């Protein structure tokens, strides 16, 4: 009798285990089908497989390096090189990996304080050359006679292509008081300059009163504090009786977007939409003016082929402002399409 009870109990336990196993199996199959049939699930599975393949490939190359490479291995450089190459593989000229070491120089460029020769330069992708966007007023490059549109072909005797703009920029920078030699292509003529590096404080906002009480303001980049300098310069010209304003954005390669938004806020009506930002998933962020304008006079914006990035945002918002309920002709700025201007 006791043995029969134990047998029944054993059967019940086995039945529960069997049901649990079948349930787990069916659930696993269902979940797998869900993830592989659903778009999101497919992408997760695919990305996981691609990542595993990438790791395996890198591991194979690492084994080859360990076996045959004769020199010392710098693990940090290997990691930086792998990340840089991974990002470069996107093939997008506006997407760039900046290492920790280069970040300090990048931030110095952005805030407008650095040691160099005073050049804004960009990559001419069609010619694959480094082009001078404009020399900084009063800097060594301007005093030596370098001009917008000049191509930098060599630094201290080393040739550089447009794709090597970052390397060339780092080579041009250096300690204050030291010299650097630049080979310049201007049209069909090759020129050579030897410049002394200086501590350069970028102060891009300039202005004057033209004939007919016309105010003129020009600046070559949107650095930290540009909006406040623009406001101060306008108020100075306004005190001199200007009745209209020219804002010169020619050869302005851009910079900090928030500085451009602040200047637009000085000009457009309150609650005007300055900018729509759209990401790859079509999610939008809207930037609108928050204050009443301080500039109430006719304005002309000067642009050219080298007007880019933040300059384009400012010019476009002033050219055709709209209210937030106007869904037509949106000034859409895709996050990936930003222009990188290098300063040396």
Folded structure, characterized:
This protein has helices at 2-37, 39-68, 75-88, 100-111, 140-144, 165-172, 226-238, 257-267, 310-319; strands spanning 113-116, 119-124, 129-135, 151-155, 158-159, 179-186, 189-196, 198-201, 206-210, 214-218, 244-248, 272-278, 284-288, 299-302, 322-323, 332-334, 342-343. By secondary structure, it is an alpha+beta fold. It folds into three domains: 1-37; 116-201, PDZ domain (Pdz3 Domain), CATH 2.30.42.10; 206-343, 2-enoyl-CoA Hydratase, Chain A, domain 1. Strands 2, 3, 4, 5, 6, 7 and 17 form a seven-stranded antiparallel sheet that branches. A four-stranded mixed sheet has the order 9-10-11-14. Strand 6 and strand 7 form a beta hairpin. The longest helix has 36 residues, at 2-37. The protein is globular and about 75 Å long.
Number of helices: 9
Task: Tell me the major beta sheet.
Answer: 7 strands, antiparallel
Secondary-structure element pattern, one letter each: HHHHEEEHEEHEEEEEHEHEEEHEEE
Query: Which outline best applies?
Result: globular
First-last Cα distance: 96 Å
User: Unreliable segments (pLDDT under 50, ≥5 consecutive)?
Assistant: 5-22, 24-36, 40-45, 322-341
Give the DSSP E fraction (strand runs of 2 or more residues). 15-25%
Main CATH class of the largest domain: Alpha Beta
| SS-derived structural category | alpha+beta
- Let me know the average pLDDT: 80
CATH topology of the largest domain: 2-enoyl-CoA Hydratase, Chain A, domain 1
Helix fraction?
A: 40-55%
Radius of gyration: 30 Å
By CATH, the superfamily of the largest domain comes out as 2-enoyl-CoA Hydratase, Chain A, domain 1
- Overall structural domain count: 3
């Amino acid at each position: 009798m006791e043995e029969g009870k134990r047998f029944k109990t054993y059967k019940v336990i086995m039945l529960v285990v069997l049901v649990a196993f079948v349930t787990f199996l069916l659930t696993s199959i269902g979940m797998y089908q869900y993830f592989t049939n659903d778009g999101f699930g497919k992408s997760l599975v695919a990305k996981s497989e691609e990542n595993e393949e990438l790791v395996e490939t890198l591991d194979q190359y690492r084994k080859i390096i360990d076996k045959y490479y004769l020199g010392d291995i710098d693990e940090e450089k290997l990691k930086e090189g792998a990340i840089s190459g991974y990002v470069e593989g996107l093939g997008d000229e506006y997407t760039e990996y900046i290492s920790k070491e280069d970040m300090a120089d990048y931030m110095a460029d952005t805030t407008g304080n650095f040691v160099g020769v005073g050049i804004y330069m960009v990559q001419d992708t069609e010619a694959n050359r480094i082009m001078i966007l404009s020399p900084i007023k009063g800097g060594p490059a301007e005093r030596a006679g370098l001009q917008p549109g000049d191509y930098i072909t060599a630094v201290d005797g080393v040739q550089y292509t447009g794709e090597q703009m970052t390397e060339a920029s780092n080579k041009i920078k250096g300690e204050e008081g030291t010299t650097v030699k630049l080979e310049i292509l201007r049209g069909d003529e090759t020129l050579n300059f030897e410049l002394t590096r200086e501590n350069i404080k970028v102060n891009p906002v300039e202005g004057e009163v033209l004939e007919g009480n016309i105010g003129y303001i020009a600046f070559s980049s949107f650095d930290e504090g540009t909006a406040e300098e623009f406001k101060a310069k306008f108020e100075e010209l306004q005190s001199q009786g200007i009745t209209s304003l020219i804002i010169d954005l020619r050869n302005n390669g851009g910079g900090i977007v928030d500085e451009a938004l602040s200047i637009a806020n000085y000009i457009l009506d309150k609650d005007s939409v300055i900018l729509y930002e759209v990401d790859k998933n079509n999610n939008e962020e809207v930037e609108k003016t928050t204050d009443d304008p301080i500039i109430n006079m006719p304005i002309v914006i000067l642009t050219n082929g080298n007007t880019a990035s933040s300059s384009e945002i400012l010019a476009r918002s002033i050219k055709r402002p709209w209210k937030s309920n106007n869904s037509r002709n949106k000034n859409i700025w895709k996050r990936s399409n930003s222009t990188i201007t290098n300063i040396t």
